Structures are given as C-alpha cells and as structure tokens.
Amino acid sequence: MYNYPGNIHIHSSYSDGSGNIEEIAEAASAAGLNYVIISDHETLAGLPEESVLRGVVILVGMEINRRHSHYLALDLEKPLASDEDNPQRIIDRVNAKGGFGFIAHPFEKGSRYIEKGNAYPWKNWPVFRFSGFELWNYTSHWRGRHPSALITLYWFFFNRKAAMDSPPGDLLRLWDCYTSAGHRISVIGSSDAHATLYSLGIFKVPVFTYRYIFSTINTYITLPEKMSSDFATAKQQISGALKKGQCYLSFDSLAPAQEFYFYAENNKTVSLMGSALELQKGVALHLKAPRSRSLLRLIKNGRLVKTIEGNELLYRPTAPGVYRAEVYFKPRFRRYRPWIYSNPIYVDARS
C-alpha cells in the first residue's frame, strides 16, 4: 500500500485566489504534496493547465453555487451552472456528466470578525447520490471559531493549531447516520485555500499563504500500487481513490500522516478503505498510526467499539457494520488532539 498526500479545494486567480496555478504547484511541491485539486468558483478555466507541475499532479474541478450549498464537482469537462434553490439537481447533473462531488463546509458558521459574519452552509437536506462531505475544512473552521478579537489575534500570530479543535460533531454524526443507513459516503479534508491579500498601508499581506495552508489539513489517497508518472493514469488513480473513499484526512499541523494504515485482511486478501467485504471467520481490521503517542479509536455504525493508546490496533469483527477509525495525537506535554480520520470499511454478512 502507498499513501500520497494532497490538498483539496484550492482557489486560484481564475476566481478569488491570489495565485496562479504555477505558483500553487510551487507551494505544493515545497510542502511535499503529490497532488492538488483546484476548485475555483463556477469556472473550469484552469482545466487546460491540468498536468504534472514541479512533481505535483494538478487536477481541476469547480465549486458550484455561491450564496450557500457549495458543491465541489470533480471530473467534469465543461462547467455547470449553479442551482442554489435545488442543490440535489446539481448533484444529479454532475453525476450525469460523469463527474462526482463533495458537499463543501456543510455546517459552516460565520464570525463577526471575519467577512462581516458571512457563512456558506448547505441549506437543503436530505440529499443523496453525492460522493461525500468535506469533514474538516481549515479556512471554514477558522471562520467559525473566533470568540473574541483578542483570542483571534493570539491564535493567528502565536498558536494557529489551537483554533482547530476537531471536525464538527454534528457532521460526524450525520456521516455515521448516512453510512449506517446503507449509503456509501466518503469524507475528505480540505483547505479552502485562497491566499487572500489584505491591504496594510501600501503593502498587500497574504493571510494563510498557499505554502502554509498546504501543511494543515490534507487528504491522503491510498493506492495498492505506486502512483504513475503518467499524468492521465495518475489522474485516474487519484479520482478513483477519492470517489471510492480510498483515502483519509489528517491535520498535518500536528504531524505528517503518511504512515497511517487502516485495512481489512482475510486469508491474506487485503481490503482498503472504501471496500466492502463479507463477514467471515478470520476477518481482521488493522489500524496503525504513524506515531506512538496516539490514541486509536475504532467506530462501528457511529459507536465506539474499541480504543487503545499506542500505535497499533487489531480487531476481529463479530457482527456486520460500517467501521471507521480515528486517531488522536498527543504532542509532548500536551493533551490528545484530533488528528486522522479514515474512511469506512463496510463489513457485511453478505458477499
């Protein structure tokens, strides 16, 4: 198995980001990423620039809708018009065009200290036939986590990790509700990067530069083989892994997560995240964290079934269910912090 870090939900100068795609590729390469996904508002203008730049696979999707109900659409050849009144129709149109997508920052909250309290949550529930959610969005999380101007300034200049307490609990519960009801819903982590420039006298200062934000919340894809050096093949590998949920998200500001593994094994047959397998005697779930100072949590149908301190957990399921993993990391002399969230493995009594 091979894990490859990437950053999803990036805005370039084709919409409201400050950098062009070449500059984004340079920042991604400096951050050690293998892929990035540009998702400018209501445009696929960057599509001709899809390629491998500076060793980074550059993919281009789009963010549909403006006022609310934002949807990250991938694998499209032509842009689709927004439809905020009926976002289910957007989901279905994306699927009909051969694409797939993720609901962006579905429970976003505003802050009166940022953009005058504006927020862009998803407003129409329930919806179906989407590939997944943004479980943890760095910029969106910051937007709703500022109790006072003083604390906001302290966090920004001295302790940015402090604002990132955990993904929204309501969204975790909604995800478990969908998957427990039989829907294959994956999650990703994203940055919503803009590298927005603010005027400071005669200077323009970027807030959350691309290089910085590419070291925060990333999504790692897991492949059974190495990523190809051929762009078209690598694109298929990345898109396929994301669509199937063969990936996990990590708050890399705590520590890189390239050596994380969550898989099922039966008679030497390995099933990766996003896979479904039959419950048989001998099936085992393997969970491994990259660091020893970890707290491993195995979740079945939204309920905690096993937890252990350390970096390895083995669990033999005795009942069918939707199993996912969480890892908390304990920086030295600190408390445990949410770190890694896997996508599920579906263990069914049927083949």
Describe the structure.
- With 351 residues, this protein is α+β, with helices and mostly antiparallel strands.
- The chain has two domains: 2-251, Metal-dependent hydrolases (TIM Barrel, Alpha-Beta Barrel); 261-348, Immunoglobulin-like (Sandwich), CATH 2.60.40.
- The protein has seven helices and 22 strands.
- The protein has helices spanning 21-30, 87-96, 138-143, 149-158, 169-180, 210-213, 231-244; strands at residues 2-10, 35-41, 51-53, 56-64, 71-74, 100-103, 132-137, 186-190, 197-200, 203-206, 217-223, 247-251, 261-266, 269-271, 276-278, 284-288, 294-300, 303-309, 312-315, 321-329, 337-342, 345-348.
- It has a 16-stranded mixed sheet that branches.
- A hairpin with a 6-residue loop joins strand 4 and strand 5.
- The longest helix has 14 residues, at 231-244.
- The two termini are 24 Å apart.
- The model has no long low-confidence stretch (mean pLDDT 92).
